[in-house]
Amino acid sequence: MFSYFIIDNKNLKVNNSLTKVLEDLPEFKCAGIGHDYLSSMNDILKESPDLIFINIDSEDSIDPFDFAKEVNEYLNDNTEFIAISATKDRTYESIKTGFFDYLLMPTTDLDIRKTVLRFKKKRPTKSSRICLKSYKDYRYLNTDEILFLRADNNTTDFHMADGSVVNSFKTLKTYQTILPKNFLRVHKSYIINSNFVSRINYGNLKCSFKKYSQKVPFTKFYKKNVDHMLNSIAALQAV
């Protein structure tokens, strides 16, 4: 799973183009959208995204390449920058600063898709796995294929992205401590994979998933965990 961050001075057309392509790739998750470098810095250092799209034509007082150098001082070497510009004027600076790519506006879906797939090829995802043990039976599941977990008395049902359900003879609480951080407890009976969530409805207290009809309820007791997901989902829906 990869995360990305967009820095653009309210250029909705660019944001729409980027999110349109990336929404079709389930292994990419939006970590946020910023409209100026200074406020974006705090969010970027907090979320540590793998990919940062930055409009270098912004009239921000901070130079975009100085900004990128400062970010790299605090994050690991895995974070890549992709410049977005209406001209080729600063191509050399982007290469010198170590940017992964340079996209020209108006961007096309094809150009964005090529760039993202090159990044993905350079850094293939590593699937983490979880073991479901029952007596002498060991079953392994890829965590990036799990939609949500549902408690059923003292057992747990794993609902998978392909529609299948896998049963485990352990409690939901057992898995809460060993699953990756993108799995959030939202109900006494449910843990969800936030990477698959497409909508949060506070009116009926339910979460919806991409390409999956069943909705998962959440309760006010776990509202803080639900709110935690809003930064990425709201960023996608706002553009």
From TrEMBL:
Residues 130-232 form the HTH LytTR-type domain. One of its GO terms (molecular function) is DNA binding. It comes from the Bacteria. Residues 4-120 form the Response regulatory domain. Keywords: DNA-binding. Gene3D superfamilies: 3.40.50.2300, LytTr DNA-binding domain. PANTHER family: STAGE 0 SPORULATION PROTEIN A HOMOLOG, TRANSCRIPTIONAL REGULATOR-RELATED. This is DNA-binding response regulator. The lineage of its organism: Bacteria, Pseudomonadati, Bacteroidota, Flavobacteriia, Flavobacteriales.
